[in-house]
Amino acid sequence: MKTIYERLDALIPAIQKKSFVENKGLGNEIGFYIFDYEPKYELLVREYIQFLKEKFKNGINGYKIKEFDLYEIMIDILEAKGYLTKNIEMEAIKGSEYVFNATKKALRLTTENDLIVQYIRERVEDKDIIFLTGVGKAWPIIRSHTILNNLHSVIEHVPLIMFFPGTYDGVELVLLDEIKDDNYYRAFRLIERY
């Protein structure tokens, strides 16, 4: 089994490949990738993402890395709508489960006008490489398989890497190695664990 350091270091040559940035798979599949890792390495992975963004701040083969933290996007949207303070107050009265469901509705998750997907779509340009982060922080409100499914139709022209604290075996996403998120078949594991 490869160490987390070996797998992180393998990201550099992987994202520099012309086929990666041109978003072309063997069968012309959409270039959605998952970098899964043991949850205990979350802080290390976050640091490495910052390192990659700094290392490639001038681009990779003409492409720029753009990070989208799902948790930060959710907070930004809730603040902009004036819901964040209300949610905190509501949680004290009605509990977390109620607030989770109310937040999902406010964000229009899984609908045609999903605000998280809209937020990302409006900020993606043709020569971007998308780093999708904050998966563990945004759970249980935002589910990774739902976001990937909804992004497929709106940003299929750019490569995307979801940094996933858990396990992805090519079919099943298991968040934090404990919570079965759901099956997802369209993404490829970017760097194998073995």
Topology (elements, then pairings):
Layout: H1 4-9, H2 11-16, H3 18-21, E1 32-37, H4 42-55, E2 64-69, H5 70-80, H6 84-94, H7 96-106, H8 115-123, E3 128-133, H9 135-138, H10 144-152, E4 160-168, E5 172-175, E6 179-183, E7 188-189
Parallel strand pairs: 1-4, 1-7, 2-3, 3-4
Antiparallel strand pairs: 4-5, 5-6
Protein name: Cytoplasmic protein
Organism: Carboxydothermus hydrogenoformans (strain ATCC BAA-161 / DSM 6008 / Z-2901)
InterPro entries: BrxB (IPR014858)
Q: What does it look like?
A:
The termini are close together. Strands 1, 2, 3, 4, 5, 6 and 7 form a seven-stranded mixed beta sheet that branches. The mean pLDDT is 89. The protein has ten helices and seven strands. The protein is of the alpha/beta class and 194 residues long. α6 runs antiparallel to α7. This is Cytoplasmic protein. InterPro entries: BrxB.
Major pleated sheet: 7 strands, mixed
Rounded average pLDDT: 89
Structural class: alpha/beta
Distance between the termini: 4 Å
* Shape call: globular
Helix content: 40-55%
SSE order, as H and E?
Answer: HHHEHEHHHHEHHEEEE
**How many domains make up the coordinates?**
1
Question: Which percent range describes the beta-strand content?
Answer: 15-25%
Number of alpha- plus pi-helical segments: 10
Strand segment count: 7
